[in-house]
Amino acid sequence: MGDDEFSLIARLFAPLAARHPGALGLTDDAALFDGPAGRQWVVTADAVVAGVHFLADDPPELIARKLIRVNLSDLAAKGAEPFAVLLAACFPVGATAEWLDRFASGLKADCEQFGISLIGGDTVATPGPLTLALTALGHVAAGHAILRSNARSGDDVWVSGTIGDGALGLLAATGKAGALGAQAAAALIDRYRLPRPRTVLGRRLIGLVNAGMDISDGLVADLGHICETSGVGAVVEATLIPLSPAAGAAVAAGVGQGLATVLTGGDDYELLFTAPRSSRPQLSALSLELALPLTRIGRIIEGRGVSVVDAAGQPLALGHGGYQHFTG
Ligand SMILES: [Mg+2]
Fold first, then answer.
1. Among 34, 107, 207, 234, which lies 20 to 30 A Cα-Cα from 257?
2. Ligand 1 center to residue 14 CA distance, Å?
3. Domain of 281?
4. Residue 310 Cα, ligand 1 centroid: separation in angstroms?
5. Are residues 59 and 176 in the same domain?
6. What is the Å distance from ligand 1's center to 76 Cα?
7. pLDDT number for residue 321
8. pTM of the model
9. Considering only 7-21, 216-230, 238-252, which range has the smallest mean pLDDT?
10. From the CA of 46, how far away is ligand 1's center (Å)?
11. Pair type for strands 305-309 and 271-275
């Protein structure tokens, strides 16, 4: 790799630690921080592997940014304010200095954009594929984190943004989007490679919602997680699912399994939440303020499981649902 581990850390990663003295310039074994008064730490970790979670020839800046963003999406789901990340990186033995520079520049861009620091981690060389593990820390007012477990019968089910772009973007990025126009394909690939974690929205949902999470495994599977944890069921109206123009074009063109891909594909990184009817006016106002669509797509009911119904109220068959990432 050119640099030894210590010079690699000093050259590429220590500058990203400058925001917080507790990171000790990445020169010590660990970082030291006081918790903000009256707040709880929110901690999450995700590992990604080339050829499983992203394509090995994806641009290194975007690999770095997606790694950060999928973790920030988990913090957003809890209503937490992002604070810092720790990176454990297994770089392939043949990784070039140029590749590493570009990877670090992607980390830097998102550290700046989201106001976070890199406060620690480890780098090793591996004969295997690029493997990256990121731990993200955020904080939330003590006792106010948004949980999966509090959905109530009668709640509305809401999603942010548009659904299905990530899964359709993966199909486009792997040449499986057939007749889709170049502009729509590019828009979907962008959403697949560069998620938009809803960190501002997440914080603003505290007090308005009963339960929430981010959508990473697919809308139906993730709503199923909320239902299972909360001991309730849900009905989603397929015609209410918000689609981007590019996703609408892809569904119309029969890309993948069409609407089933939208409902069960992964990589949306939008927020899925349930809220009482009384929150409707405030959520509509928040959507306008943030210039981010917030869409009611169904309701929480007594019972078990998630059903998706068509315009006539008939259940749609979606196969087993859930997102398996791609295997080649
Ligand atoms: Mg999540």
1. 234
2. 28
3. 156-309
4. 27
5. no
6. 9
7. 46
8. 0.90
9. 7-21
10. 9
11. unpaired
